[in-house]
Amino acid sequence: MRVRIDPNSLFSRLLPKAFIEAPIPVAFTFVLSPPISDSAISSPNYTFKGSRQAPHTMEDHHKMGYLGATSYVVGNVIGSGIFITPASILRFANSSGLSLLIWLGCAFIAILGSICYIELGTSIREAGCDFAYICYVKWHSIAFAFMWVSVLMTYPATIAIISETFGQYLIEGLRQVYDIDDYWAPIAQKLFGFSLLWLVTWMNFFSLNKFAARFQIMATFAKLASCALIIFTGFYFYLFKGWNEGLSEPMKHSNTNLGDLVMAFYGGLWAFSGWDILNYGAGEISKPKKNMPLALLSGILLVTVVYLSINISYFIVLDVDTIKSSNAVAALFSQKTLGAFAYAIPFLIGVLLVGSLNSNLFSGSRYMFAAAKQGHLPTCFSCVNAENDSPRVAVFAQSALAMAISFVGDLDALIGYVMFGFWAQRLFTLVALLLIRHKRIPVHPEAIRMPLWVIYVFLGVTVVLVIIPIVQEFQVTAMGIFLCFIGFGFYFLFITPEKLPPVLVLLNEKCLLLSAIVFDALPDLKNSGSTQIVTSDSQQALLGSRASQSRLSSDESVPDLHSDEKNIMIRNGSSSGLRMW
């Protein structure tokens, strides 16, 4: 059948005039919910079609028990973070003993946060995590501002951190074979990191999902093998060789500056990201009120044991100054302990970082794509390639932003950028939860209620993690604050009004046309529960009176890797309070 788009509708602003004036054959399909973070996708309760998790029932013998839920927590939390942040934490703590205490503190914060997010996830059963929770209390402008920060800073900075760390590990591995001058090492590090980034970008251009799924198995093996090899090697040298390089005076020269300590906590909390995995599978866990808190507590304690064991192994073999000198600590560790097999750990961690980079680029680009489909970003970012459904413009934009952000600061600063935005959003999410509790706003009838004191304690910790960096490390928080204010401005200038200024409509059309030509991609348009993809063979056909449309597959998968940000936004067209471009 043929339909004509209403030129007065908000949906019409997604298209150039030629599209609006032409009758378009429409293939109606189910709404494709944009993929969320890998933690959510790995949950057995996640449903791909529709933006809500439909509650469903199943017999207890089909549900996860305590051990299954615990394994989900452990598998999702342990990721690339433990191989990226130990040196960063030590640089701020300045002593081995204090850095180990910070790791313990991060575990405590993760336990508090996971308990609070159990209540959020079971009360507000909409995909989108923090974005959905903030929108639930009608704070659409705040949700939009943090969506803006995530698109422009959080995801690109995460991608930049992983690519830079890959470059460092590769350089340290090559130094075992070649003599690399210290002057050229940072340049080579960036070049290697950028090369990997563009390779992964090319992979995402063609949606090599089968390859990514197979590579995920390798990445998981690399993660487990690296952790085991470091722990057993370190304790072997302690028990049988008597080494104790960094633990002889554990609290000597400890740093007590609050700003530096918060930055150290940022590094540890980066490594503990992913504790909200059970949010997405509450309905799949037997006796959730009993098993969910126990699984979270046990899982995070197991992760803490692994993280502390790895750090203690580092301190057994390496002194404090050596660890502080390079973010590729595991490579330095292997050089001193494994002899001819010293390349093994850098290689394994390199494989893990490639998988983690692919996962974060996939999630970040789909986040941008989802925001553009909802009209929160220019239409060009909703363009997909008709053959493989890859959102190429969003993939390219995330990679380009990551390269630009990598020049803004070193790895410690990049982690600060990411975690400040992350915890600032968490602050508003917790306030929204307290508002729901105190105003008795209706939520899901099967919500799991947690003690109020836990929420208040976690809120207090979150306030400290947000306020102290603003006061003492403003250069790290300035970018996030600036982007938040820009997001607020864009919301009230361009999202709230019924009509956009003509110049922006024209700019949107030109960017859409340029993106269609350069990336061989066309807009995937969503309205009133239908998903549409415009396809054409030429620029003339694109702007002509007719265009054909084909269906976008609704089955996309996210590589099941640890993702360090969980605030992917998916909104149902019928429930969103935000207007469209």
TrEMBL record:
Give TM regions.
66-89, 101-120, 141-163, 183-205, 217-238, 258-282, 294-317, 337-358, 393-409, 415-436, 448-468, 474-494
Organism (species): Steinernema hermaphroditum
Task: Give the signal peptide range.
Answer: none
- Subcellular location, record wording: Membrane
Under InterPro entries, the record lists:
AA/rel_permease1, AminoAcid_Transporter
Q: How does it sit in the membrane?
A: Multi-pass membrane protein
Q: Which Gene3D superfamilies match?
A: Amino acid/polyamine transporter I (1.20.1740.10)
- Protein name per the record: Amino acid permease/ SLC12A domain-containing protein
Keyword annotations of the record: Membrane, Transmembrane, Transmembrane helix
Annotated GO molecular function terms are:
L-amino acid transmembrane transporter activity
User: PANTHER family attached here?
Assistant: AMINO ACID TRANSPORTER (PTHR11785:SF302)
Where is it mainly found? membrane
GO cellular component terms, semicolon-separated: membrane
